[in-house]
């Protein structure tokens, strides 16, 4: 089992704070450092000093880290056009020496679109755009050097594109698709994804989503085992009850709720929960760290949880 650190910088974090958490993830031996792709805070957080762009941040981390993989969970297809996004991700992949992964979704947070003047079409159109973006981005990356890429869709058209630059990774950076959608999401995962992620869901919901992706793979004669299964869960770990309660309070959550819907408790309790989740056929768990300045939290998980789950 691979554990990854997942952050939510829109809740309030400077680049230096994001970098400190990424370095803690790298030094702790975690497999990756991922961030959300949002422009507006959620809930009661101040959001100060303000949002940071996900891919500008990852470009900085590509140069300021050395081993840990980097990516988004998930970038919104509403934020960027697919051609420039393919260029951006390929460039950050080169800057990192081939450590980048692209999580791409339809977008869901209407308020941030309104706040920053980003169009937010109905859900059907958002999924149409997501599908075309996935087809264009993978098509650009997979086009041979010297050849041109053309695409004519409902929402995007590309003509005689040189499809450059190419990413460092071959055939291209891993693509992550995720969510709770019952129809379109599994179909897109089966067609495009290297990894399917279920965020913040119960064991039974995760199992159902993975089964839907398996069924979608079989319909197009793809081996379901070729898609990595992962989940994202809030983590709140402590050496004792009071430490767990303190960390839960710092992120405005209740321990009982986190125990049911996330990973909360002592290192041993979290390892037990991960063992149960492993029955879903998971390869990765994204540990959502909501208090980004609590680097001791990351160190505790690295020291007492990570070694116990590596062999799962």
Structure description:
With 312 residues, the chain is α/β, with parallel strands linked by helices. It has a single domain (2-309), classed as Luciferase-like domain (TIM Barrel), CATH 3.20.20.30. 43% of the residues lie in helices and 19% in strands. Strand 1, helix 1 and strand 2 form a beta-alpha-beta unit. It is globular and about 60 Å long.
Radius of gyration (CA) equals 19 Å
Distance N to C terminus:
5 Å
Biggest sheet statistics: 8 strands, parallel, barrel
CATH topology: TIM Barrel
Shape: globular
Can you say what the CATH homologous superfamily is?
Luciferase-like domain
- Summarize the amount of helix as a percent range: 40-55%
Low-pLDDT stretches: none
Describe the secondary structure blueprint for this structure.
Elements: E1 2-7, H1 15-28, E2 32-35, H2 54-64, E3 69-72, E4 75-76, H3 82-96, E5 100-105, H4 110-116, H5 123-142, E6 149-152, E7 157-161, E8 175-178, H6 184-192, E9 195-199, H7 203-219, E10 228-237, H8 241-250, H9 255-261, E11 263-265, H10 267-277, E12 284-289, H11 295-304, H12 306-309
Parallel strand pairs: 1-2, 1-12, 2-3, 3-5, 4-5, 5-8, 8-9, 9-10, 10-11, 10-12
Antiparallel strand pairs: 6-7
List keywords for this structure.
312 residues, alpha/beta, TIM Barrel, eight-stranded parallel β-barrel, 12 strands, 43% helix, globular
């Amino acid at each position: 089992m691979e554990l990854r650190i997942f952050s939510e910088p829109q809740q309030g974090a400077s680049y230096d704070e994001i970098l400190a958490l990424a370095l803690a993830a790298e030094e702790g031996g975690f497999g990756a450092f991922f961030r959300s792709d949002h422009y507006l805070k959620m809930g009661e957080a101040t959001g100060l000093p303000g949002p940071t762009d996900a891919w500008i941040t990852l470009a900085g981390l590509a140069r300021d880290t050395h081993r840990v993989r980097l990516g988004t969970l998930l970038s919104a297809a509403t934020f960027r056009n697919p051609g420039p996004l393919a260029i951006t991700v390929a460039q950050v992949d080169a800057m990192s020496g081939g450590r980048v992964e692209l999580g791409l979704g339809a977008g869901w947070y209407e308020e941030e679109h309104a706040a920053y003047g980003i169009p937010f079409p109905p859900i059907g159109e958002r999924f149409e755009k997501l599908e075309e973006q996935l087809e264009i981005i993978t098509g650009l990356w997979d086009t041979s050097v010297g050849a041109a890429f053309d695409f004519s869709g409902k929402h995007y058209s590309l003509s005689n594109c040189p499809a450059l630059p190419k990413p460092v990774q071959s055939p291209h950076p891993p693509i992550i698709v995720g969510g709770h959608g019952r129809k379109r999401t599994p179909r897109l995962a089966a067609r495009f994804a290297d990894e399917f992620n279920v965020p913040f869901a119960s064991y039974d919901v995760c199992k159902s989503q993975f089964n839907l992706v398996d069924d979608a793979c079989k319909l197009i004669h793809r081996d379901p085992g070729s898609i990595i299964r992962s989940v994202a869960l809030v983590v709140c770990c402590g050496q004792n009850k009071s430490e767990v309660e303190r960390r839960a309070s710092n992120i405005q959550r209740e321990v009982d709720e986190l125990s049911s819907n996330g990973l909360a408790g002592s290192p041993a309790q979290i390892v037990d929960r991960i063992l149960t989740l492993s029955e879903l056929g998971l390869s990765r768990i994204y540990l959502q760290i909501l208090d980004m300045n609590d680097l001791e939290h990351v160190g505790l998980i690295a020291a007492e949880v990570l070694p116990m789950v590596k062999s799962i």
